[in-house]
Sequence to fold (178 residues):
Amino acid sequence: MHTGEHFDPRDVLPAALHDFITITEIDSADFLVADLFRRKFGHPPPSIPRHLVGLYRAPDGALHLAGFSHMMPFGDVYLSGGSCSDGDTTRLMLPEQRDALRAAGGLWFYLLKYAFRKYAGCCDAFFGHCGDKRALEVALAAGFVQTEHEHVIVNWHKPLHDNHKRALVAKVHALGAF
Fold:
């Protein structure tokens, strides 16, 4: 499996976040993400690779899980799902850090930007299934666009023939919610 582009996560994060937020991929979600994921979704995180985490570095140097997003390879596309943030970690942030993160667009926005860059060479498009109004706003700001199917969104990060696009949308729509 192609591992994606290697780059410094600060390349996608604004300078105001560099001192306290980083994003990285981890091999297995169960070690770091399981508690948060169970709390948000009621079941264990996916075991299929492409687990992205946002980490918060507190003033004392301790690292805390701030957010998670999963990018699941599905043939020639990636499916974005399982995204969540940890309110407990957000409450640990200094007020000026919370304000900077909010003003910059929030952590999920940058988890998506990171994924779109890292895995651009691994797939033809990124798809999401989004029914939440606020999440949709963030997804659209990060580069997703809506399709003709309710809740199905896509990021066309490279040129594709319209017939190929239609086929990919149909394939993902046939999955239902993911």
Residues 19 and 141 are 24 Å apart (CA to CA). The radius of gyration is 16 Å. The first strand starts at residue 21 and ends at 26.
